[in-house]
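[Meeting: bench + compute handoff]

Bench side (C.D.) handed over the final construct sequence. Compute side (W.E.) agreed to return the predicted structure before the next meeting so the bench team could plan truncations. Sequence as handed over:
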Amino acid sequence: MRSTVARKALMAVTGLFLVLFLLMHMFGNLKLLIPDNGAEFDEYSEALRTFLYPVLPEKFFLTCFRGVLAVAILVHLEAAIRLTFRDYDAKGGLGRYFKQRFLGGSFAARTMIWGGVIIVLGVIVHLLQFTGQIIKVNYPAGAASVLPHERVVLGFQEWWLVLLYAIWMLAVCFHVWHGFYSAFCTLGARVGAASEKVIKFCAWVVAILLYIGFMLTPVLIFLGVIFPNA
């Protein structure tokens, strides 16, 4: 587990797992486009909490899934940090290491670590707003909680939040684009020029699909196309 090969494999596997989660999350968010005043989205949110209930305790599956997701993120981060700093001593110190890395790598590779930092900060704010409801945007006076679809609709009434979300999702999808390609290369899928083109094409498709899928709902809410009376 200390070797570079093992850490790259861990990054690849956990990264692809996180991409699958993003796709699932995106399709769930798109339920807000159903013209039923958010009922389908609220039912979907409730179904996640009560999945396999009463066979298992309420929220048991959701808690376990969140735990697995947290472990995947931590393993991915740990591997990324170790790989970033693994040999800076051999290259004459941290400053010289980053200079050589900057000059030698592609723009995507050079910015992956900083994109990861932006993503982590965005995830924290996202959880505080939509999951924990600690950050309350446009909540009615005195309201401690609102329905799941209302959290989204009320939040994206603000132009600055839509803009920040767009920038954050740009960092996420840029990270996904390069990470998707790197993961499949690490796992041995790149076996020639043709396969490399296929992997790059798939990486673009996934990244663009995620960006459009995640931004469609906030933009339509802000423009009043959906939930116009919110």
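W.E. noted at the follow-up: The chain has a mean pLDDT of 87. C.D. will use this when planning the next construct.
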